[in-house]
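Figure 2 data, in text form.
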Amino acid sequence: MHYDILKSLYLGVIVIDQLDGKIVYSYGSAPFENFAVQDLTQFEDFIAKNYAENRFPIFDRFMIANQAYWIIRKQKNAHIYYLIQECKQWDKIIEETKAGSHLDGLTKCYTKVEIESFVTNSLATYLRYKENPFSLLMYDIDWFKKVNDVYGHLAGDFVLSELSSLVKTLLRNSDICGRFGGEEFIVILPQTKVAGAIKLAEKIRETTKNHTFTFQGKDIDISISIGVTSVGVKDAPFDLIDRCDKALYDAKEKGRNRVEYR
């Protein structure tokens, strides 16, 4: 990303080297002129102290003088970019984002790489402040191979796309949904503890079971199994994902069309 282009698009820009955490470039126009920080830790503290309603909401909205802004995170090569923009321009950014490689083309959910990055970043923030707990859901379609075998791969693609749209209607704006592979998906739930995550998982499971998936005049019965886990102080990013995957495996082993927690 060229810095001059970023300056023309965003109110604030912070570029951080992933290896040493140092800021290699910073820019801010009003009201972000004073980015006098040297590394990621200072940047987090700066945002938390001066602007955020909650501590460093990297993928969320924050307020300055009743004006809403977003922090957008992008990763390219060895650098992480934090880009600040007014919320009124967010719809345009969303549309541009949909065309990007970090969204799955079929389901318009985030890719596996992006989801892993989101989990890593969310965990780092949680471990630093011991605040902002979050949970993960991992779900996939029961007997999905049969859908492809009986109705064809176009029907399978339709089910994946339709299910993704359905699940998104049940999520909050702050929740993050990604396609982890095949028919397997992960949802990151910020500010959500175990009880809330399980409640949402059951709602998603039941809504999916009761939804009519109709492809070329044929109704396809679909159910999903869901694994749930929540962040802990001893977790590493892939511990969380692995634990959620094992909870999903438990749901499959216990008969499918169910929710299990680990």
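Caption note: The domain at 112-261 is CATH 3.30.70.270 (Alpha-Beta Plaits).
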